[in-house]
Amino acid sequence: MESQVWVKVSLFLKELRCEDIKRNSIIHLESCQKEKKALKIFRQVWEKEQKNLSELQQRAICNYIEQMQAVSFEEQQEACGNHCTSDPQVFAGIQAVGM
Predict the structure, then answer these.
(1) Alpha-carbon dihedral angle through residues 59, 62, 67, 73, given to the nearest 10 degrees
(2) Statement: the pTM of the whole predicted model exceeds 0.85
(3) What is the C-alpha separation between 31 and 19, in angstroms, rounded?
(4) CA 25, CA 28: separation in Å to the nearest integer?
(5) By CB count within 10 A, which of 9, 48, 63, 89 is most buried?
(6) Which long-range contacts (CB under 8 A, 24 or more apart) does 9-13 make?
């Protein structure tokens, strides 16, 4: 039963990620926008500098970046899941729908 609940929570979170991002209740952090702008600048620098690296060095750096992104994404999922599971209203909702 417990694993079925987590499957339903997982499906709910996946649906939530795909919702309309223009809704009024979505959270936009100023700090996130600032970091995105900084990332854009670093990306421009990277695109210029990578030409000076060997293909092996470029691949190693790209693999590292991809792994950092994967870990970051999974940490976000954990944080969202931990928030949802620590919220008593979520559990009340799960019980109300008979999960």
Answers:
(1) -150
(2) no
(3) 22
(4) 9
(5) 9
(6) 9/81, 9/84, 9/85, 9/90, 9/94, 10/81, 13/77, 13/80, 13/81, 13/84
- Of 84, 70, 75, 71, give the one whose Cα is nearest residue 10: 84
DSSP string, the chain: -HHHHHHHHHHHHHHHHTS-TTSTT----HHHHHHHHHHHHHHHHHHHHGGGS-HHHHHHHHHHHHHHHHHHHHHHHHHHHHHHHH-HHHHHHHHHTT-
Q: Are 15 and 91 in contact (CB under 8 A)?
A: no
Q: What is the spatial distance between Cα 66 and Cα 70, in angstroms, rounded to a whole number?
A: 6
